[in-house]
Amino acid sequence: MKELIIAFGLFLFIEGILYALFPSKMKSMLLKLNEVNNSQLRSGGLIFAVIGFVIIWYIKN
Fold first, then answer.
1. What is the mean pLDDT of each run of 10 residues along the chain (61 residues)?
2. Which residues contact 33 (CB under 8 A, 6 or more apart)?
3. Which residues contact 17 (CB under 8 A, 6 or more apart)?
4. Rounded to whole angstroms, how far apart are CA atoms 20 and 58?
5. What angle do CA 24, 14, 59 make, to 5 degrees?
6. What is the model's pTM?
């Protein structure tokens, strides 16, 4: 559970830094999400989830 909280904190830190350093770029990137198909978002999310799982599994073993 401690590792999950640390991971969530790291996620918030990285997101916060990106918005603090590049606010206009983040706005334009979020606006471009409307142009992406749902299937492309779903595929990208699944790919990143699998990559994240493999990284966690590799580190834990």
1. 89 95 94 92 94 89 88
2. 41
3. none
4. 32
5. 145
6. 0.66
Tokens 């992406």 belong to 36
Provide the Cα torsion 36, 42, 48, 53; round to 10°: 170
Q: Cα–Cα distance between 50 and 52 in angstroms, integer?
A: 5
Q: Give the angle subtended at the CA of 33 by the CAs of 50 and 41, to the nearest 5°.
A: 30
pLDDT for the residue numbered 16: 95
Distance CA 16, CA 22 (A): 10
CA distance 5 to 43: 26
